Amino acid sequence: MRISDIIRTKGKAVVTVPPDTDVRSLLTVLAENRIGAVVVSADGRAIEGIVSERDIVRALAARGAAVLSEPVSAIMTAEVQTCDPRQHVDELAAAMTLGRFRHMPVVTDDGGLDGIVSIGDVVKIRITELEVERDSLSSYIRTAAT
Predict the structure, then answer these.
(1) Which of 4, 21, 37, 55 has the most CB atoms around it within 10 Å of its CB?
(2) Which parts of the sequence belong to the CBS domain (predicted)?
């Protein structure tokens, strides 16, 4: 299965915030959208960074509550790993596991934001694949037994 299959099912909507958004406002965006990360982008298309719940926790532990007034650009990951919609989901899962992150923006050939995939999306697809495989094997066994 390809990443484009996930995006086709999930949709291309990506929550973004401008880099000057303060961390307190970011927390509101995460909570309202029930998500774990946002792409940092001034125009909603060019990726300037990504910031996750983990980034917030680490910044709070290092600098205390004052971080809530800082811009997200102060805590975001600026070197964002992205994926191509044509990549196989197994490649994405391997990259997420190796890099120890849970969200990866999907980009078009021109580098524009085309979606975002989470480890939860990957797990959901894998479970669906396993269920289809199980059902096929069960059907095969039932047919062979008769």
Answers:
(1) 37
(2) 8-67, 76-132
Task: Count the domains in the chain.
Answer: 1
Q: Which residues does 58 contact at the CB level (< 8 Å), separation at least 6? A: 75
Amino acid at 65: A
Which CATH number does the domain housing residue 130 bear? 3.10.580.10
What are the structure tokens assigned to 85, written together?
Answer: 């919609």
Cβ-proximal residues to 96 (8 Å cutoff; 6+ apart), any chain: 102, 104, 119, 122
pLDDT confidence of residue 79: 94
Residue pointed to by tokens 């980034």: 55
Domain membership of residue 32 as a residue range:
3-145
Q: Are strands 49-52 and 37-40 parallel, antiparallel or unpaired?
A: antiparallel
Q: What is the mean pLDDT of each run of 10 residues along the chain (146 residues)?
A: 91 95 98 97 95 96 96 96 94 93 93 92 84 80 77
144: left (phi over 0), alpha (psi -120 to 50) or beta: alpha
pLDDT for res 66: 96
